[in-house]
Specification:
Blueprint lengths: L1 H24 L6 H30 L3 H27 L2 H28 L1
Helix pairs in contact: 1-2, 2-3, 3-4
Length: 122
């Protein structure tokens, strides 16, 4: 639980910093499409950062492995989905965009595990 809260806090900080950098530091340097890609990465990272913190707090009530695993999948999703979109937006290297769906699948698995945990243990 504590580790997920710390990771969530760090991710929240990084998300705000990357959002500000995208809005101010990249403006005029990247195409509109690349900026939109960057913004999508920031958006998904923030959504899932909040979920990671929620999972950490939920672990105070029910300590089950499926919740911890869900948190791990959300972290993996941020790294693989948002991370590859950030790199793709600034580099244009398409291999990163090809990896992005793996992060999306990690998000989906995290959501399934969170739902399973809620149904089974709450």
């Amino acid at each position: 639980m504590k580790a997920l809260l710390i990771i969530g806090a760090i991710s929240g900080f990084i998300t705000v910093a990357l959002g500000a950098f995208g809005a101010h530091g990249l403006e005029g340097r990247l195409s509109e499409k690349a900026i939109a890609t960057w913004e999508k990465a920031v958006q998904y990272q923030m959504f899932h950062t909040v979920v990671i913190i929620g999972v950490a707090l939920l672990l105070q009530k029910i300590q089950v492995g499926s919740l911890t695993t869900a948190g791990g999948f959300f972290i993996a999703g941020i790294l693989l989905f948002s991370g590859t979109l950030y790199v793709y937006a600034v580099s244009g290297i398409t291999i990163f965009a090809i990896i992005t769906p793996v992060g999306g699948v990690a998000f989906l698995i995290g959501w399934v595990l969170l739902g399973y945990s809620a149904i089974k243990y709450l």
